[in-house]
Amino acid sequence: MAKKIIPQRKNINEKDKWNLTLFFESDNQWELLFKEVEKNISGYKSFQGRLHESLESFRKGIEFDLLISRDLEKLHTYAHLKNDEDLTNQSYSGFKQRAMNLYARASENSSFIVPEIQSIPEYIIDEFIKDESLSEYRFYIEKILRKKAHTRNREVEKIIAMGTEMTSAPAHIFRQLDNADLKFGSIMDDEGDEVELSHGNFISFLNSPSKDVRKNAFIKYYGVYNSHKHTMASILASSIKKDIFISRIKKFEDCRKGALFPDNVDESIYDNLLKTVKNNLDPLFRYLRLRKKILDLKELHFYDTYVPLIKEIKFNMDYDEAVSVCIKAVEPLGENYRSVLEKGLTSGWVDRFENKGKRSGAYSSGCYDSPPYILMNYKEDSINSLYTLIHEAGHSMHSCYARKNQNFVNHDYTIFVAEVASTLNETLLSRYLLDLYKDDVNMKGYIINREIDNIRGTLFRQTMFAEFEKVIHNIVEKNNPLTLEVITSEYKKLLEIYFGDTMVFDEYLFLEPLRIPHFYSAYYVYKYSTGIAAAIALSNKILTEGDGAVKNYLGFLKLGGSKFPIDALLAAGVDMNSPRPVEDAIKHFNNLVIQLEELILR
Predict the structure, then answer these.
(1) What is the pLDDT of residues 351-410, one digit of tens each?
(2) What single string gives the DSSP state of each residue in 100-113?
(3) Which one from 73, 392, 467, 469 is the annotated catalytic residue?
(4) Confidence of residue 312 (pLDDT cuts 50, 70, 90)
(5) Domain residues for 31?
(6) Would residue 195 count as lying in a domain?
């Protein structure tokens, strides 16, 4: 039997790696910029205490700070991309640590800016803002003034900035343990080959038609987390305590208020999401019961929820073909969108395949002065990889449009709207594939099944994660301990609510929160749920209303971070203050389940 080994980074073909020379020609160029910024941050002293003196002093101080921020963004982006190529490479781990340290030092030096702007008398700041020379900075300044109640004095802000590296420690420790140190061993695949198990191929094993392969992968994978459960629970608890420390020092009532404040998102949107989803779980239960019936199982386990229900279809698509499919799927968004995306996906944006030490999962990254870069761990035998590629492409194209149409200070859109662009692309892919295979009953069923699972994982599952975040933060905020037992018992309660009696819960599944990286970014995951709801609404508009809806959507992408996310979505035609987008997304899910029932049980 052949043993399939994950390759070393040096053995990956150059054409399958992202091209970071489009950004920095060499490590030496990065070093030169690092030294320049390190030298320049002392220049903050010349502006301290003087921002109020004149319009010119005010403008020059802001522009100096933004210039430093822009260079820091370049340094950090390159460092983290190189580090993520192979987390065991200590040289680039050093780059990343140095970039973070420099960011912390710059933050310390610039910590006076926000409180100083907020201390300028209102009549003076009003006159400054009216001046045309500050027109591109108005929204930026308004956001600073809005944070006045949550900004401490200069000395406290300096201490907060000095603590940046320490407060980021739990997330850093988790990533290193999870991606670099955890080893999952190997298992037998469907062909009887011994294959090394990893983050990158875990879901591929859960797609296996063999229950034994699925179960063995689940046990092997979660067995490793079980061996480290006390340490990982401690890391997660430390991260929650960090969230609470920051929210309290910033004078927020709780972590959630602090997390929602920058996006100007009302708590009612979060609560409406949880309430709306929990009040509409019947379509999910219906689907899980259908899954159990089609798979002819006495009991449905978590590891049975990924395998396609259409057994005759064996998916296989190489990377180049996947790019071609993605380009055809986004055709409704226009020729410019398509051409820019195609060039990017084939000419250096994407780091395509898994290698030893590479960060797991996928993301789109980059900065104002770089192309958007996409990290993939593409698997030809997994349709999830195709969807992941077009998902990350949505982020990247959002970045392209925002950077082209906004200045540096306003280009960076929030995660809340970022997930709209990515999940809309996934929805367009499903629509394209359903049309492509409209005469192929099995393939049509396969695609509907995949879209159902995508909505299940993004809307229902992420909402459950969002409620879990709220629960564990509330526990610690009430000064109660967040132990391993508390984490697993609270997660079990939510599993029982969100999945009812449709599934048997293996004890290992209660450890799932310990492996979710997004829990290290407070109140992040709810944005996946709101994002897919908005994306489904916008894709329906694009496919039914045509050019006008496309124009509004591309206009939304061009806004970048120049508006608060709820306002930006309103401009695109979706009101997230209402529960309707979430309700409509669940109705869409239910209709897909009915279609799947008709196809399979015909």
Answers:
(1) 999 999 999 889 999 999 999 999 999 999 888 899 999 999 999 999 999 999 999 999
(2) HHHHHHHHHHHTTH
(3) 392
(4) low
(5) 7-167
(6) no
